[in-house]
Design a protein that fits this description.
Elements (H helix, E strand, L loop, with lengths): L3 E18 L5 E20 L4 E4 L11 H13 L4 E6 L10 H16 L6 H11 L3 H6 L2 E6 L3 E4 L1 E3 L18 H6 L9 H7 L1 H9 L3 E3 H7 L4 H8 L2
Parallel strand pairs: 3-4, 7-8
Antiparallel strand pairs: 1-2, 2-4, 2-5, 5-6
Amino acid sequence: MSGCSVVAHGKLNLGLRVLGRRQDGYHDLASLFQTVDLADNVTLTPSAQLSLQCDDGDVPPETQNLAWRAADLYLREAGGKPVHIDLVKRIPMGAGLGGGSADAAAVLRGLNRLASRPLAADQLGHLGAQLGSDVPFSIQGGTMVVEGRGDRLTPVEWDPEGLELHYLLVDPGTQVSTPWAFSQLGRGISSQNTVLSNSDPYLSFLNSARGGRVPVRRLLEVIVNDFQPVVERAKP
């Protein structure tokens, strides 16, 4: 078996609504995800045992690292030989850009590329969902309306309406833990579900975008992120 390298693209949440806590402990979300050029690089090479090395010393060690766990899960579920994972980080940690999920998705895609009997796309997505809510999207990438706990994906295309949309990523050097952010949203969030579903402009926008087109002007009018006030209060 020869090795391979896979680019692990980050993503932007172009708006985010947290609709409620599920019985399985996850939250139902509604968002528009967009792949960005900023990316980590994952290289897989044959090895006597599963191992991981990263150029960033702050990245969690092997068994706690999502990329390592992705390889372990794939090899247990689909078979195959161990690999050494060389991870070059460029996506800031704790930035909401999905770096850990992107790395896990890249490992799954890489192992599937090397497999003698690769998994189907839906099987790979199922493995991704076991690792984290953003992993199924990161396996596919592109522009998608994302719902549920991240497992309901609808590919869409941009309708620029005469505008050219750009993004600017600024790293303030502050990390925000996803579990912490959810914990700060407060109790009673599950009670918002009906209200938001019926009247929220951003959710209405996503509902329309499911038809396949994302109008840029309307997005700019309704974009909202439930985590923004939470993070701004704690880290002004």
